[in-house]
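re: that complex we talked abt at group meeting.

here r the seqs, copy pasted straight from the sheet so there may be weird spacing, ignore it
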Amino acid sequence: MNVAPGTHRTPILVEVERELAELIPGFLANRVNDVASLRALVSRNDLQSICRIAHSMKGSGGGYGFDAITRLGGEMEQAARSGDTTKVLALTDELEDFLVRVRPVFP
Amino acid sequence: MSTEAVSGTTGTLLVVDDDADMQRLLSLWLRAEGHTVRAVSGAAEALTQVCIARPDLVITDLRMEGMDGMALASRLLADAPSLPVIMLSGDAAIPDALAATRLGAAAFLTKPPTRQALLTEVARQLERSQAGASMSGSFGAAFIHRSSTITALLEEAALLARGDISIMISGATGTGKEVLARAIHAGSPRKEKPFIGINCGAIPEQLLESELFGHEKGAFTGAATRHEGLFVAADGGTLFLDEIGDMPVSLQVKLLRVLQDLEVRPVGAVRGTPIDVRVISATHQDLEQLMLVGEFREDLYYRLNGVSLHIPALAERREDIPPLTGWFLSRHAARTRTSLKRFDADALELLVSASWPGNARQLANVVEQCATLAREERIPLAVTQRALRGHAGQIQTLKEARDAFDRQYLVSVMRLANGNVATAARLAGRNRTEFYKLLEQHRIEAAQFRSDLGP
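got the structure back, here u go
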């Protein structure tokens, strides 16, 4: 990512369980990796692998407290199923933007 | 399994998910509750862990690379039929949920699960299987099931077992009446003494009499030696009288006397022998109906029926079919010293949806046949279909089924009408003459339905 976290975009505050504090950085780092993988997969038109990543995002995001990731994963899975790579790329951009701006806060 | 007062039942849990983030999240939630957690990323590893770690519960993702959650569930069903499985799926597709439950999954949760939903379900399943295990000394293990109706029945039976009250078990052929009777005996203070069973319907009257009560040498032609009889043989233990409804009325009188006097007098003997026997009887017939037509003695009925237990037909508790199937498969493997076979998912679904007029006994036969016929480890749908068709002989003919329905229907209408034939005929939309004819055909007497409260 070429934008340093939070430098000139509005942060998104997300409340997450205190117990998950240790896991959050790893989880978000994996999603950053997903962004790179997704772009590479779109260029190879590997829809099946895109589906798998999107499905995982959908399944795990909400559990960690990031409903946005679950929503993006769901939409991306749909888009990949219908072969809409433009939509997949747009959603990947959205995911990247979210990852840059998100600030986990612990209640 | 350790028990912690704060968080309720805790156990060893196996988490199966090919997404590492999901594994970590679920593990953290579960460990925070005091559970011991093992997490693996595939079904194959899960099967190994089931053998090594002996988990109390499996939580698996539905869609995984390689063997998916559904295949894992069907495999676990054969390997560890009593191990509960919670299935997680990214899609709330009802067909998936149905298929999963049919394959024996105890619960189905949509991903992402909320912490609360997951922990509640885990606690529920652990409590359930622990309740089953605490009973399983004789009951849970002896009577394979997953349905709550059978759990409730076994709980009642376990309590009754400790006492000495006579028990009457009702249920259709093949539902497991003898299995239940044996479990009651095994859970009773009489368990060290013999359990002796006899089918009262399968033996001619005179033979049945001497089988039950014994005879002296020379008591009748052919009685070359003294025979002590089953009551004496079962002394201190349990005597199981199967198909009691088939016992001839003349013998019913003698049986009643034995039960009243607690003393048995062998045929040809002068003096009686005191006996201490608990009687469990069973029938697939409607004894109240037999009493009405004078084929079963009322006094004997009340003597035998201290308390009654009813085993529902297999078709009324289909959730018991997967664990029973798994159990029959393991039994087959053990008996034949062959490797454990398992049903393909679609084959298992066929078993779950079949009609099973012959109940668990028929299921046992079909599973045995499939396991014998299948050349590979997996039993395919085609083999299962063939085995089920081969057992079509146990299916009622159309006439039998219609007659059974008519009888049932007529009885309920007559009950509704309090035995008033004119009213019943009107309810049934038939004229009186026609209706009378039907009653006669099915030997149903109007008087049986007239209560003092009726019109």
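couple things i noticed - The longest helix of chain A spans residues 24-44. The mean pLDDT of chain A is 90.
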